[in-house]
Amino acid sequence: MHSELENYRQRIDHQRRQVREMVDGLPAEALNWTPLPGEGQGDATNSLAVLAAHVAGAEHFWMAEVVGGRPATRDRDAEFATRAAGSQELTDRIDEVAAETAEILSSLGPADLDGERQAPDRKVPVRWCLLHVAAHTALHLGHMQLTYQLWTGGKSKHTPSWPEILKEGESG
Predict the structure, then answer these.
(1) With pLDDT > 70 as the criterion, what percentage of the chain qualifies?
(2) Strands 123-125 and 116-118
(3) How much is the pLDDT for 37?
(4) Are 165 and 14 in contact (CB under 8 A)?
(5) What are the residues whose beta carbons fall under 8 Å from the beta carbon of 16, sequence distance 6 or more?
(6) Which three-class secondary structure state does DSSP give residue 36?
(7) 3 state SS of 159
(8) Any idea what DSSP says for residue 117?
(9) Under 8 Å CB-to-CB from 7, ≥6 apart: which residues?
(10) Which single residue of 18, 48, 79, 120 could bond 53 by disulfide (Cβ 3.0 to 4.6 Å)?
(11) Are 23 and 146 contacting, i.e. CB atoms less than 8 angstroms apart?
């Protein structure tokens, strides 16, 4: 049986890996395309590049800055202005965040899950931070899947079924 921390790590890793696979190898044209262009957050959809940058930025914020207590470096506005020249810069950033999250999670013990951490405007439970990273990533992965399908005219990338996810957890 996996520990609670290991279960969080598996879920976060699984979601992040799907985000990485979604953008890996795509040309700039696909990465920067938006289904509904417009101005402002409420008027436009986001590109795959923006969503990948945002997912990485949010994970970095919650895991490294809030849970890990590292200095604030996130630039959320820059995430939404991302224009990718290619997929490598996105996959590199996702990989950096993966390593950072692994380091933070490996430093936590079961008692840390009962603790709280200081976010910019309030204290938040550590468990909430971990669940939020997984849920937030899953939400934007869904946006990415739809954007990819619209870009390709209906084709999709493989999405693991729950038996595949559970089997992955057994071997991971």
Answers:
(1) 94
(2) antiparallel
(3) 75
(4) yes
(5) 55, 59, 94, 97, 98, 101, 137
(6) coil
(7) coil
(8) E
(9) 169
(10) 79
(11) no
**H-helix or E-strand spanning residue 49:** helix 48-59
Letter for the amino acid at 128?
W
State how far the alpha carbon of 124 is from the alpha carbons of 98, 116, 130, in Å.
22, 5, 11
Whether 1 shows a pLDDT value over 50: the answer reads no
Kindly report the average pLDDT of the chain as a whole number: 92
Q: In the prediction, which pLDDT does 169 show? A: 67
pLDDT in tens, 36-73: 877 655 667 999 999 999 999 999 999 999 999 999 99
Contact 51, 90 (CB under 8 A): no
Q: What is the 3-state secondary structure (H, E, C) of 57-108?
A: HHHHHHHHHHHCCCCCCCCHHHHCCCCCCCHHHHHHHHHHHHHHHHHHHHHC
